[in-house]
Amino acid sequence: MVVVMEERATEEQIERVVAQLVTMGYDVHRSTGATRTVIGAVGGARMGDPRLVELLEGVQEVVRITEPFKLASRTFKQDDTVFLCGDVRIGGDEVIVMAGPCSAESEQQVQATAAAVKRAGAKVLRGGAFKPRSSPYSFQGLGEEGLRLLRAAADQHGLPLVTEVMDASQIEVVVQYADVLQVGARNMQNFTLLRELGKTRKPILLKRGISATIEEWLLSSEYVLAGGNMHVILCERGIRTFESYTRNTLDISAIPVVKKLSHLPVFVDPSHGTGRRDKVAPMARAAVAAGADGLLIEVHCDPDHALSDGAQSMFPSQFERLMAELRIIAPAIGRSICVEPVARRGWGR
Amino acid sequence: MVVVMEERATEEQIERVVAQLVTMGYDVHRSTGATRTVIGAVGGARMGDPRLVELLEGVQEVVRITEPFKLASRTFKQDDTVFLCGDVRIGGDEVIVMAGPCSAESEQQVQATAAAVKRAGAKVLRGGAFKPRSSPYSFQGLGEEGLRLLRAAADQHGLPLVTEVMDASQIEVVVQYADVLQVGARNMQNFTLLRELGKTRKPILLKRGISATIEEWLLSSEYVLAGGNMHVILCERGIRTFESYTRNTLDISAIPVVKKLSHLPVFVDPSHGTGRRDKVAPMARAAVAAGADGLLIEVHCDPDHALSDGAQSMFPSQFERLMAELRIIAPAIGRSICVEPVARRGWGR
Amino acid sequence: MVVVMEERATEEQIERVVAQLVTMGYDVHRSTGATRTVIGAVGGARMGDPRLVELLEGVQEVVRITEPFKLASRTFKQDDTVFLCGDVRIGGDEVIVMAGPCSAESEQQVQATAAAVKRAGAKVLRGGAFKPRSSPYSFQGLGEEGLRLLRAAADQHGLPLVTEVMDASQIEVVVQYADVLQVGARNMQNFTLLRELGKTRKPILLKRGISATIEEWLLSSEYVLAGGNMHVILCERGIRTFESYTRNTLDISAIPVVKKLSHLPVFVDPSHGTGRRDKVAPMARAAVAAGADGLLIEVHCDPDHALSDGAQSMFPSQFERLMAELRIIAPAIGRSICVEPVARRGWGR
Amino acid sequence: MVVVMEERATEEQIERVVAQLVTMGYDVHRSTGATRTVIGAVGGARMGDPRLVELLEGVQEVVRITEPFKLASRTFKQDDTVFLCGDVRIGGDEVIVMAGPCSAESEQQVQATAAAVKRAGAKVLRGGAFKPRSSPYSFQGLGEEGLRLLRAAADQHGLPLVTEVMDASQIEVVVQYADVLQVGARNMQNFTLLRELGKTRKPILLKRGISATIEEWLLSSEYVLAGGNMHVILCERGIRTFESYTRNTLDISAIPVVKKLSHLPVFVDPSHGTGRRDKVAPMARAAVAAGADGLLIEVHCDPDHALSDGAQSMFPSQFERLMAELRIIAPAIGRSICVEPVARRGWGR
Could you say which DSSP state residue A188 is in? Predict the structure, then answer.
């Protein structure tokens, strides 16, 4: 913490600040310039509340100088975190695309969509069984029956499965079906849930809250990491701004910012980030061009009749075309998007 | 829903939109003007996704025309909701002040603070036992021991108690100690929690999420109301904006807006809304002047040594002075802030 | 400026930062703690770009430590700025209300409105002749003819006049009619205009831009002050946020924040801040309760037929009632709202 | 405009609304459903203030149904606007890169930077002579001398020149030197300036204000278009959000949104949009991947000694590398980035 004193601060006021900092456990370095005194406080209690110093007389400003996150930081671990999820390598050179329906609705719908995304090159199946909805009157998901349908389709097509867990009480059941556990944007600061997920040994995909700063997002990942689960994927999905033409503003610049601050892989969800099918492809391309490690995309075999979020789900043919575009873009930054053997043999089989 | 067609929309496109709306269960009214056609869709499925229509060819814009919240709306219930919490009347002419420490820390601290706020005119004791913290390394509250301390102090001073419940799994224990259950801003869309709270019969104080629109806030209250618990207090506590001089921007204008849209009582928390002790009094005065039904204020018998949020906790003497100012302001809008018998007899007893 | 080095920064990197700071003209103080080095840079060039240091290798974060504004700051001038505008004292104990129509439309309209606001206790007449409008197809004001009408009404009722100047080229004409020159929110960073206004000797009412930080707002006032014109009134009128139920979010907390940072008087415009007549009174009361030095309110003798902003203009009777409410609130913070002799004798004359 | 009546609205209230709409010049269509009445108002005065209807008794909500912009809209002109600037084709298949220093500082600096950007494939030279700065104490540009230096370098290297005009009074001089006139973000709603620019016959590059909605941005372009100057380039450069790790949040999703609403070309300025050199390349790549028609990039032959914005200016070598990456990305969406003959012959000359 650095404390900047007012120009007219008295010696007595300065000493009171120094005393407070010492009480809080800091090493204190005092630096007196021509016009004002600056006090540096290093080491000490990581979480001392800077506002307590800010309120002392003669203090102009207090600035925190260490990132409050630790295990998520590049200071703690310099190399990129790379890990396997099934045989899919997350965080490596290959850009990983996770795709599938917003919600599982029926066996036929899950199977058809899984087949389509696999064929186009997706490496992980996504799909929801427990759905958080702003309104209590909206469709809330099929629950465990949905998990069963998703697991069957994932197995059938040789894809790992990512699905959302909404509450700590659901972990026990979801963990039996899923390979990656997703935390939704509204739950980014559900600390009870995060703490419990830190005890599991499955990778966690942690979406950024729509009004979460990057710092808060990394602090939330810290709840999982501190529990001993080091396999966290960060997923940007749009922040809330004044602009209302798009549902949210997808913060593409968060990708290079987080890649610099943290060693964790960063994914992007352009489906929720834009809320409209015709904006998904441009933003997916932008995310890969900006350096995202992967994408999470909603695809539905029949979006016009989807029970939730049909408007932002891509048709399989749109998704195929997007994958082809991404294969051109990825090499610009030294990455690849792999093509499945089955796809290489021809999509028309 | 109202669908505005593009100027160059064809008859065929218009008919496709009409057909889609009929499928979604709406009564359709078509209105053809000089330059374009507008299609009104009334009745029908409350939650049809307007984006599905928006994506049809020839459609320029789709506008939702009914508020998605129902039980919280003045359309549903025209009179203000007023209810008793112990012998305290919430939502009536009297502006109710709930005050106390951020967290329960010790018996002495809870008792001293409760005595101070009671003496100054607070009608409900507030205090936290389970604390949601952005960082896993911060103080997380005393848990059930904190609840015991708060209950004892509340009983001692004849005050009802409001305290936070962070997770559905905590309801069972918190409900044994508290008179009002508080849902924190980060949990405003923890739908599992809200649904469970709808089954209890204690009043719920629902804080607005820092990036929640007023509509989303009312929809979250709907989760509680739909469960049969009609005693919800809405509590504004600051929204996130680009301005960083204050921790959040307290949205005072939300008070008259919500009072018009909904029959539920609206409180304001100026302590979290500003994050700094010296800004609490001006914003508390502003809230009452704008028509708030009550306030939630952090007071600590010794803020400089508080384990959490000391920087935004008022000294008892500051709180007393604020209460005196509020007693002048309330009559300007036909309201009062009652004075306790004990206080009227003299604070020096 | 304070430079925080990364934990793993090398001695060579630290020395390069020190050299850069010395080049920029700073006194450098180096402080080595257990885990990292912090470098304080005081004195020196006021406006050195901290980002130039931020990009050096081994640097984690750079923090600016002096406010970039100078003449507007309480560090520069500790006492409140108080000045006369005609015989009206701005910045003193009395809360000053400026009221009148959005735009001058006709002699009858201006005279009738001026009479009404005078009677209710307004001390300054407001009204627009040059109107900035988002769309080129909207009414753009009467121009100099409007100024003549406003001046005549101001003289008739013994009120000083505040009106907007949109461009440096208009100053010469506006200065002949107005007592206070208003800079609109969209022009807050029109530096050519601000610089020219610094050369006039009329008070300037500077509205905050809808997305301006408090720091940028004070820096803009600095353009006027640096020209030698020390009579600047700051006017909060709402900031842009994600919430869309109100046109803007009136930032009431800016009042106490600016009163602490600066000696300049702070006014509030609740008409533009909310955009709706029925929200003006609650927000005007909140502003006074929070410590505003004055208000700027749109009143129209016949709002339903106003050529601009009728929806946010109060009826004269609503304005009278608001003034009565404000007279109750002001004493809560040791202030008053004066009553005109004519009003004291009875409104019915 | 569509007026949604409250469920309990009376027949009398409905008729009053209809009468008001007729007065405002609309064709009125009334549609009575099971629970409420919806009134459609088409044709009529383009700019009737919907808030005037909103305040009538019994009205729940009023929705505007036509875009307020006209000449900028795809409804008005379906095909993309493409035009020549010198021999450079703006808005066509080729992605156009405009590059150069933030400010002209010296002949040597301008010449060296122009040579470097030309060699790497830039098609237009950018550079500032009049600089808008938040603080009056910052470097404000070389003025006309800067224009002379920029013109000479542009001629020397066969590049058209884009430079900023800050005030209507500067147009006369700037127009003598520049090929494209730039309006800065802070001036996006300087209507006096925009109106004057509508009378020139040079292309206008109109930056989006940091808090401007897309609608306001298009309305500002309308001021230029309405004057008869149809050559407007829209330029996204970041919006203000709560996130502070980046200076602004570059709104990449604005690209596909504006391309759908308007026929005007859309450029992106990743230098101001991020404020940091190491974030410029990822965001430039993202912009092209999302469909931008061009880029505006700050390059400096010696950024560490730049007088303004050095921290966000690229080194020539970084810029060359970025151009190479963009040449890989552009074909993914059927576009190209041309290579200058000189560059094709080898960069090592």
Answer: T
Q: What is the pTM of this model?
A: 0.83
Class of domain B83-344: alpha beta
> Using a CB-CB distance cutoff of 8 angstroms, which residues of chain C are in contact with residue B279?
253, 256-257
* CATH class of the B2-63 domain in this structure: alpha beta
Average pLDDT of chain B is 88
Query: What size, in residues, is chain D?
Result: 349
Question: CA B252, CA A331: separation in Å to the nearest integer?
Answer: 51
| pLDDT at C253 exceeding the cut of 70 | yes
Neighbours of chain D (3+ CB pairs under 8 A): A, B, C
**D141, D130 contact by CB (below 8 A):** yes
Among B38, B66, B242, the residue with its CB nearest the CB of D40 is B38
Which token pair is D2? 């569509």
Spatial contact of A311 and B49, defined as CB atoms under 8 Å apart: yes
Residues of chain B in contact with residue D57, where contact means CB-CB under 8 angstroms, are: none
Averaged pLDDT, C94-111 = 95
Amino acid type, B331? P
Q: What are the residue boundaries of the structural domains of chain B, listed by start?
A: 2-63, 83-344
Query: Nearest C-alpha of chain C: how many angstroms from D304?
Result: 7
Amino acid at B220: S
Distance CA A229, CA A222 (A): 10
Distance from CA of C68 to the nearest CA of A (A): 13
Which residue is it, tokens 């970041």? D238
Summarised one tens digit per residue, pLDDT across range B267-303 is 999 998 888 888 999 999 999 999 999 999 999 988 8
Put simply, the chain A residues between 194 and 253 with a CB less than 8 A from any chain D CB are 211, 213-215, 239, 241-246, 249-253
Q: How far is A53 from chain B (nearest CA, A)?
A: 8
The type of residue at D268 is V
Residue D315, token pair as written in the block: 């080194």
pLDDT 10s digits, D257-283: 999 999 999 999 999 878 888 899 999
Single-letter amino acid, residue A4: V
Which of C60, C133, C191 would you mutate first to test chain D, the one with the most D CBs within 10 A?
A: C191
CB atoms within 10 A of CB C302: 16
Q: Contact, D297 vs D280, CB < 8 A?
A: yes
Report the C-alpha gap between B9 and B57 in whole angstroms.
Answer: 8
ipTM at complex level: 0.85
Neighbours of D63 (CB within 10 A): 18
Q: Quick check: D23 contacting C, CB < 8 Å?
A: no
In order of C116, C157, C302, C320, the CA distances from C119 in angstroms are: 5, 9, 16, 8
Say what the pLDDT of residue C342 is. Answer: 44
Chain A closest-CA separation from residue D245 CA (Å)? 7
| C109 φ/ψ angles, rounded to the nearest 5 degrees | -65, -45
Which of these, D48, D190, B7, D52, lies nearest to C137 by C-alpha position?
Answer: D48
Best of C21, C39, C55, C65 to disrupt the A interface (most A CBs within 10 Å) is C65
**B168 to each of A169, B134, B208, C300, how far by Cα in Å?**
9, 19, 18, 53
Per-residue DSSP letter, B86? T
**Do the first three CATH levels of B2-63 and B83-344 match, i.e. the same topology?**
no
Which DSSP category does D239 fall into?
A: B
φ, ψ for residue D35 (rounded to 5)?
-110, -25
Candidate from D29, D38, D61 with C-beta closest to B42: D38
Q: Two tokens at C6? A: 């990364």
Residue D308 DSSP SS3: coil
Q: What is the pLDDT of residue B349?
A: 31
pLDDT exceeds cutoff 50 at A233: yes
| Cβ-contact A266, A234 below 8 angstroms | yes
Q: Does D42 touch chain A (CB under 8 A)?
A: no
Span A23-52, pLDDT tens digits: 887 777 777 766 678 787 766 554 567 777
- Average pLDDT on B24-37 reads 74
